[in-house]
Each structure stands twice: as C-alpha cells, then as structure tokens.
Amino acid sequence: MRLKDKNVIITGGASGFGKEIALTFAREGANIIIADLDKAEGAKIADEIIDLNQKALFIEMDVSKKSDVDKMVKIAIEKFKQIDILVNNAGIANFRDIQEISEEQWDKLININLKGTYLCSRSIIEHMIEKESGKIINMASISGVTGRPVGVDYSASKSGIIGITRTLAVQVAKYGVNVNAIAPGPIITPLMEKYFNEETIERLLATIPYKRQGKASDIAGTALFLASEDSDWITGEVINVNGGAFIG
Ligand SMILES: NC(=O)c1ccc[n+]([C@@H]2O[C@H](COP(=O)([O-])OP(=O)(O)OC[C@H]3O[C@@H](n4cnc5c(N)ncnc54)[C@H](O)[C@@H]3O)[C@@H](O)[C@H]2O)c1
Predict the structure, then answer these.
(1) Fewer Cβ within 10 Å of end Cβ, the chain: N or C?
(2) What is the CATH T-level fold of the domain 7-240, as seen in this structure?
C-alpha cells in the first residue's frame, strides 16, 4: 500500500479525475475528504470509500469562497488530526472565443480554477509547515502549457496554477512540503463530454502518438506517484500526461 494511513483532501472529488484519484488513493490505504459542490455524488463516493474500509468524509463547499475553504480545512484537521496531501482538482471549463467570454464568466472561471487553488493551498499550508511534511498536487492542463484554439480564461487559469505550483514549491521546500502539478491532455469526463464528438475524437487522436485516448486512470496514476514517497525529491514540476501530444 503506497498511501497507508495518509489523509487526503481532494477538491472536486465527486466526479471525473477527482473521483478516480479518490478511489485510487483509497485502494492504496488513504483516508479521503471529498470537498465538492455536488452533494449527491460527493456523498456517494465517500460511501464507496468507506466500503473499501477506509475513512471518508464528504464536505459540501465552494473552492472559490474563502469562508467555505477555511471551514472545510478546519473540519478536515479536526476529524482526521492531520492532513498529508491536498489535491487541488476542482475546476470548470468554457471553451469559447474571447469575444464570447463575458466579464462575469471570466471572473467565475478564474475564481474557481485559480483562486480556488490559492485559497485551498493558503488554508492548509501552515498545517503542513508545522508538521514539516506534506504534498500539494495541482490540476493544471495542456491548455496552460501550450495554449489552445479557444478559452483564454481557462488557459490563463491553468498557466496561473503552474505559476502557483513553481513559486509555492520554492517557498515551502525547506519545510519538506512538495508542490507539483499535473497537466493532462483532453480526456472525456463529465466536464469535457460536450466538446467531444466523432470528428473531434479523430482530430485529437491524430495528435497523440500513443494512439489511444487518455483515461481518468492515467491521471490518477500520476497523482498517486506525486502523492507517494517515490516522488519525495520532486517539487515545482509539471508532469504532462497526454500520450506524447507535444511530439505528435
Ligand atoms: N477532462 C479533461 O480533459 C481535463 C484536462 C486537463 C485538465 N483538467 C482539469 O482537471 C480537473 C477535473 O476535471 P474533470 O474533467 O474531472 O471535471 P468534472 O467536471 O468531471 O469534475 C470537476 C468536479 O469539480 C467540482 N467543482 C466545480 N466547481 C466547484 C467549486 N466551485 N467548488 C468545489 N467543487 C467544484 C464539480 O462539482 C465536479 O465534481 C479540472 O481542474 C479540469 O480543469 C481536465
């Protein structure tokens, strides 16, 4: 078991990558706090984790609200005594041309994707510094590394997450806290379903040397590596998980 008795907060753990990460970590012996807006699905995943004989707690919250974030972290520490790993995974996407992105939509996306990552990291960091250990895993995206044809708000949020990752990694390295990011290529999840059809899948596959689509388990496997002792000397890194798309 690679995460035996580790306590993990996963934002956006009710769906897609977050759900897969939660179940993968629980199978490796971790106890999981699912922090998500989605009460019905979040509570269901927490029950699935309890069925795996691990501790689990669902906390309904919005990562873009400081009061929700601080309350969630307080409850998590009270119930689990210590938190070893934070996965900043909650996020939304709206792939539109810049002329179609209203100021309200820009603010909403940046507040959830980017500010949410800042708020959750800020809220847990003193706890990790005090115990001189901890791992933060941020969910970036290929959009934040190379840019994409649409969605400047999304790309900006994900480039910003890479900035948070590198800078926070340097700030807290001396306390034994690691901060890394995963930058997935496009993968079908509830977030992305509406953007995929036969034609887009074919176009996408033509850019992937590995010649298959990515799966949530590809991302969960990378998160497991970054959460485990195997990655102790890695910090401030962005791992691109995209089937080789950069060289396709
Ligand atoms: N699927 C992809 O192709 C892809 C690629 C690169 C990066 N990502 C990133 O991975 C992360 C997970 O995406 P996914 O594809 O699994 O999406 P998803 O929609 O399946 O899951 C996202 C989860 O985040 C939760 N969430 C949304 N807003 C929230 C908020 N304000 N507070 C708390 N929870 C909130 C949702 O309820 C949901 O459970 C996101 O950050 C996304 O940007 C996804």
Answers:
(1) N
(2) Rossmann fold (3.40.50)
